[in-house]
Amino acid sequence: MALSWRQDDLAERSGVGIATLRRFESTGRIGFVGLAKLLATLGLADRFLGALKQPAPAPKDINEFLASAPAPVRQRAPRRAAGN
């Protein structure tokens, strides 16, 4: 809808059959290859794959949390001009 494509436009551009596309829209069921074709056609493949990555494990306790935090970076004060 966001691209103003009709079902048959998406089916033609992706190579997924119109019946498969309609079944996917009504039931949520589709094969892997069909899903991959749709995601690639819609420019969503990278977002989809990124969503499948496992999140970093949570720290077990406060000490592990504090140990994993990056050290603060101190900013240097600007140098004063000579004679001030």
Rounded radius of gyration (Å)? 26 Å
SSE pattern, N- to C-terminal:
HHHHH
Structural class: mainly alpha
Strand content: under 5%
CATH class of the domain at 1-52: Mainly Alpha
- Quote the CATH topology of the domain at 1-52: 434 Repressor (Amino-terminal Domain)
Largest sheet: none
Tell me the helix content: 40-55%
Query: Could you list the spans in which at least 5 consecutive residues all have pLDDT below 50?
Result: none
- Helical run tally: 5
Rough outline: elongated
Please describe what this structure looks like.
The chain is an all-alpha fold. The chain has a domain at 1-52: 434 Repressor (Amino-terminal Domain), CATH 1.10.260. The chain has five helices and no strands. The chain has helices at 7-14, 18-27, 32-42, 45-52, 62-68. The longest helix is centred in the middle third of the chain and has 11 residues, at 32-42.
List the helices and strands and how they pair.
Blueprint lengths: L6 H8 L3 H10 L4 H11 L2 H8 L9 H7 L16
Helix pairs in contact: 1-3
Summarize it.
The protein has 84 residues and is mainly α.
Q: Top keywords for this entry?
A:
434 Repressor (Amino-terminal Domain), mainly alpha
